[in-house]
Amino acid sequence: MQTNVLDDQINTMLKRVNPAKRRQFGRGVALALRAYRSNEILANRDVDGKPMERRKKQKTLPRKKNKGGLMFTKMGRRSSMQIRANANFASISFPHKHRKIAQNHQEGRSVQVNQYTKVKYPVRTLMGATKREERIVLDHLYEFMAEVL
Fold first, then answer.
1. I need a labelling partner for 17 at 20 to 30 A (CA). Which of 33, 42, 68, 75 fits?
2. Considering just the CA atoms, what is the radius of gyration of the chain in Å?
3. Each residue of 91-125: pLDDT tens digit?
C-alpha cells in the first residue's frame, strides 16, 4: 500500500516537470539500463545473474571455425540495442535484425535452422527487470528530483 502512495506522489511531482526534461530523464535511465544489460549479456549472464547455459559443441570440419566461445557478442553491444524515450516512457529493444534471435533464446523456441535441421534452444533470458535495475532507476530518479525540484 505504501508503494502505491509513493508512486502517486512521484507521478504528481513528475507531471509538474516539463515534457522535455521528462524525456531527458527517460533517455538517461534507458542509457544506464542499456549499459548494465549490455555488460550482462556480453558476460553471458542471465537476468538473475546466473551463467547462461553454454552452447553445444559443434562437429568441426577442417578449415571451419568452431563456435565454442561466448554467445551474443554482437547482440550484446550497446549499439545493437535501441532506445526509445519520450515524456511518458522509455524502452530498450533489439532492432529487427536481432529481435528474432533474442526471442528464440528468451522463450526457448524450436527453430528450423535450415532445410535439414531443427534446433531447440534452451531458455536464455536476455531482457528482464531485476532488483539491480530497479535500483538504477531509483538512483536516477533521486538525482533527477534533486536537480529539478
1. 33
2. 20
3. 999 999 899 999 999 999 999 988 998 999 999 99
